[in-house]
Amino acid sequence: MASDAEQGQLQAAPESFLSKDLVENISRDGINPGRRSLLQGAFTAAAASMVAPSLMADDDPDIVNLPTWTRSLGKPVVANPYGQPSPYEANIVRRQSPGLTRTDQSSVSFTPLQNLFGMITPSGLHFERHHQGWVDIDPRRHKLMINGLVDTPLVFTMEELLRMPSVSRIHFLECGANTGLEWGNVAVPTVQYSHGMLSASEFTGVPVSLLLERAGFDRKRANVLLAEGADGSSMTRTINLENALDDALVAYGQNGEMLRPENGYPLRLVVPGVQGVSWVKWLRRLEVGDTPWATKDEVAHYVDLMPDGTHRQYTSIQEAKSVITAPSGGQKLLKQGYYDITGLAWSGRGTAEKVEVSVDGGRNWRPARLEGPILPKALTRFHCDWVWQGEEALLQSRVTDSTGYIQPSRAQLVAVRGTRSIYHNNAIQTWRVGADGEVHNVQLG
Amino acid sequence: MSSWVRATALWLCTMAMISWAATLPEGLAELGRPATGGEIAAWDIDVRPDFVGLPPGSGDVWAGEEIWLAQCASCHGDFGDSNEIFAPLVLGNITDEDIATGRVASLTDPAVTRTTLMKVPTLSTLWDYIYRAMPWNAPKSLSPDEVYALVAYLLNLGYVVDDDFVLSDTNMAETQARMPNRNGMSLDHGLWSVSGVPDVTGSSCTADCDVAVTVTSSLPAYAMNAHGNLAEQVRDWGPSPGLWTATETGKETAAEPEQLAAANAAVEAAVAPEAALNVGGCSGCHQMAGQLVGPGFDAIRTKYAGKEHAAYLRDKIVNGGAGVWGSMPMPPMPTVGEDALQQIVAWLTSGEE
User: From the CB of residue A163, how many other CB atoms can be counted at a distance below 10 Å?
Assistant: First the structure.
């Protein structure tokens, strides 16, 4: 048993494991067989001295016993030429919802919102929605064509697009079917699956308005744009010219680097505030027109079924919505005490002006703290202090956007649109915290 | 012009806000070049509801069936009714009344599976989509005549046209006028324009609000692991880790990845595991050929070629050693992970004996 004075003291650092005499001998005479064995002995002693420190009851062994990383040579530069997350973050990945689709090429992977911070989604965690698989496109061979109601149909190379004046803007990208599984009842356990077709990035590219001006579009007749992809599906969507001229981009950059292939490398359309399906990936063509095209994804899908049997067509704008990302469904509060209730708020019509949080299922609300910058058609991070004392709680958030629009409750939304719409579910989300600390996805009525 | 196209045009005119104008920076007009006619023809294959863009051609139901069985049925079923891979295209539930009114009545019935033909108002859409994106694994391999035939077959499955029907560019419009849900689309909503008027309003109440707080829906316990073990999907060291929803302990499956890693290591043994060498810190002192601080890998591989040396080398890497290659001792390398260790040892012992 070590004496009190020794207990809790740090052991000699590894650098000092050679005695002063030995160092002097080696530097004077070099290493001979005798000294080599001394040196080996010193290594062994150094290792042994660090595995068995003296611990007092209150000592944290991770502090007192210096961990491996504190007493070994670290890794070299460019061990990972493209940096990777820590292996301890392996849980935080995009995931599919089992049974949602039968093929992985026409499918969805969801962003792990439950563990992300701030207002930007790491590019590798941006949700995926492909209609016929994703492709690797050679940027040297990729072209953008602009035709239709223009003076001169044009072809641009990627090199030319990168020469043009560019802008960088932060915007959210939400699939129109986000939260679509939850119209009728609770169907998924976590916010990753309920709200994870939502991401946000800084996009860099050329304003569509500039390209249309360059081509000389017909101002009198033009009403709409057709955007078309270069992949096998050659996805097409009709874009409102109002959006296109206002703030749409032909984007090649995402979070400071080129777009990821799964997100449209080397070129995609960015239509801020509008549902993701309109942000056509692997963009090869923009056609100026006077009447919509009624493409597959605007007549058979991305149409919202109303209780009277009609389908709303060309529903595009993502109305204001918010969700608490932590604590959220599928998690467990381990202890009572302080929690930072945090989440995201956004609006396709402007900025998130105000977010309120309720812990009693919507009976009482208090304002959340919004983090800046608060940008239009971007994600805004909110926080709300909460002391949990072991009681049951029903956590909700509610956003009001810059137009004055207030996010509806599920009951308010369903009263108008029924439960079979699939698309554009922006209802207030409820997480139930049990007395055991377990958090579950619930709906109230 | 169909009623649908007229309605859409009117709807657009009331919404258009084209008051925008921009000046082009000097020199920008030199970027981009005129597209050739051939290039536009190659890419501009879209077909609108007014049939602008529709190539001439024709195809009948019987030809369509033949192509369907060869190229479409594997995903969609012989009669377009399969629910195996995609939602059903047709289910034979379209009525004469639906075709007469242009409204599929069963869309109000939650018990009825919604098919493509119950929704699509425009025949142009079917033609355009099949031509641009089908078949699934070979898009754009169908000729216009084949597409006409396939669309004719689909319409026949849905009782929209008879068995002897021939679809062509000349009768597309009149056939579109029989589409069962041609009047089923609504543009009466606020979600097209950023300035559109919302149809639902939330509440601004902040205290003692009159709302129902009874839980009416939640996941039953048996469904909690339908999405896998939630404990493995949430940051496991954070303030609120994921719930353990797996039924097994999770440790029984560990053997398989290990075996896989060992097999991979064997396959890759002949190639220098540079990532492992870098991450393990080896390349700080060893280089591929020739002495650095420690011996070159070339010399190590020559000396220890053969699997019988694997345990010895593994011990040297993990625990360090001295005296074999010269005066400089090798320190223990505890940070080399198990996978990297296996790769490195397999490579070092894979040299020619």
Answer: 15
pLDDT tens-digit series, residues B94-126:
999 999 999 999 999 999 999 999 999 999 999
**Cα distance between residue A305 and residue A313, in whole Å:** 9
Whether residue B208 is contained in a domain is answered as no
DSSP state of A5: T
Which residue segments constitute the domains of chain A, with CATH numbers given?
14-70 (no CATH), 93-312 (3.90.420.10), 321-442 (2.60.40.650)
Contacts of A394 in chain B (CB under 8 A): 213
pLDDT band at B261 (very low <50, low <70, confident <90, very high): very low
Q: Which is it for the CA torsion A277, A283, A285, A287, positive or negative?
A: positive
Q: In which band, very low, low, confident or very high, does the pLDDT at A25 lie, cut at 50, 70 and 90?
A: low
Flag if B13 and A223 touch (Cβ within 8 Å): yes
Q: Is residue B250 part of a domain?
A: no
Q: How far is B21 from chain A (nearest CA, A)?
A: 8
Residue of chain A whose Cα is closest to the Cα of B122: A294
CB atoms within 10 A of CB A190: 28
Chain A window 184-243: which residues touch B at a Cβ cutoff of 8 Å? 185-190, 192-193, 209-210, 213-215, 219, 222-224, 226, 228, 232-234, 236, 240-243
Please tell me the distance from the alpha carbon of residue B351 to that of residue B39, in angstroms, as a whole number.
56
Q: Per mean pLDDT, which range of A8-12, A87-91, A404-408, B183-187 is the poorest?
A: A8-12
Nearest to A412 among B133, B200, B217 (CB): B200
CB contact under 8 A, A163 and B122: no
Q: What is the pLDDT of residue A410?
A: 97
**B227 CB-contact burial (10 Å; exposed 0-12 / middle 13-18 / buried 19+):** buried
Q: Does A102 touch chain B (CB under 8 A)?
A: yes
pLDDT given at position B241 = 95
pLDDT tens-place string over residues A182-229: 999 999 999 999 999 999 999 999 999 999 999 999 999 999 999 999
A103 vs B contacts (CB less than 8 Å) = 85-86
Q: How far is CA B59 from the centre of its chain?
A: 32
Of all residues in chain A, the one with the smallest CA distance to B236 is: A91
Contact call for residues B120 and A299 (beta carbons, < 8 A) = yes
CB distance from A339 to chain B under 8 Å? yes
In a domain, B10, yes or no: no
State the DSSP string of A282-336: SEEEEEEESS----GGGTTSS-EE-TTS-EE-S--B---EEEEEES-TTBB--SS
Confidence band of B147 (pLDDT split at 50, 70, 90): very high
- The range of the structural domain enclosing residue B108 comes to 44-176
Number of compact structural domains in chain B: 2
Domain with residue B271: its CATH number is: 1.10.760.10
Establish if A164 touches chain B: CB-CB under 8 angstroms: yes
> Among A256-270, A305-319, B233-247, B276-290, whose mean pLDDT is lowest?
B276-290
B61-71 vs B144-157: helix crossing angle, rounded to 10: 100
Mean pLDDT computed over B4-19: 53
Find residues 9-28 of chain A whose CB sits inside 8 Å of chain B: none
